[in-house]
Design goal:
Length: 321
Amino acid sequence: MLMKGVTLRGLEVFEALAESGSVAKAAEVTGLSQPAVSQQMRNLEGALGVDLVDHGRRPMRLTPAGRSFLGRTQAVLRQLRLAQNELTVMDLTHLSTLSLGVIDDFDNDLTPRLVTILAESMTRCRFKLITAPSHEISEEIKARRLHLAIAASSGEVMEGIVEYPLVRDPYILVCARGAVEAAGGVEAMMQALPILRYDRAQLIGRQIEAHLARQKLEFAERFEIGAHLSLMTLVARGMGWAITTPLGYMRAGRYHDQMEAHPVPFKPFSRTISLFAGTDWADRVPRDVARTMRMLVGDMVIAPALAQLPWLEGELRVMES
């Protein structure tokens, strides 16, 4: 049972106010009047017995208690929204077959969770799932061999394909634990050790190489590796450093005690993970799947990643439709 005075509406108002710092904007997001937003906050703070925001500052800022409570609030609301989406939003009972391709960065707990949700909504449907690198998934959706695809966006406009952005995944630098300190800094470490490159046949490899070229950065050609986990294994063993993304880093969880991650020491860049669907699909199905995927990624990938790498706050994020 919730503490008396702590309501879901109050938690929603607190989340909106924490993100915007403005009663007016929180009112717009929640659909309440400004006096109602203020009253909800007074009720919530009264029930908890602490101030969650500094009401004397503009824009409003969270107190230390507010910052601590916000993380719990967001986790609770994510779970409730996901449960609601599973129960009332996604209706796939009318489909007889569905072929889905998912980027292999999600080939851990997230993809099975998505498949479970879909299967429960598709009790009479023949279901096919493939996991592969983004460039392979993109070719399959362009060839119409997949109904839906989740992959990194190349930025290409594909005729007959609609894109639903899901996640902003910034590029980061990873190396063996202690390598930066031993070299005397990130840039010194980059000169002391070789770069471990992704295979340029892969979209992630092409995106990284294109950005390095734009920054006029050159590194010796020595390693080019196709398998992500093999690349992370070599990083953990101190064979070199690599540029990857938080999604890739989280996928290599078994090596986290042997690795460290840093912002790239040059102009930052990122990739977008999107859901793709043919224009012959009714809009509701891909939108529902995209909404569910955003909730899953936020809860199962982004939240744990930010707990480990808090400097990614605001950079690694779900992209709203």
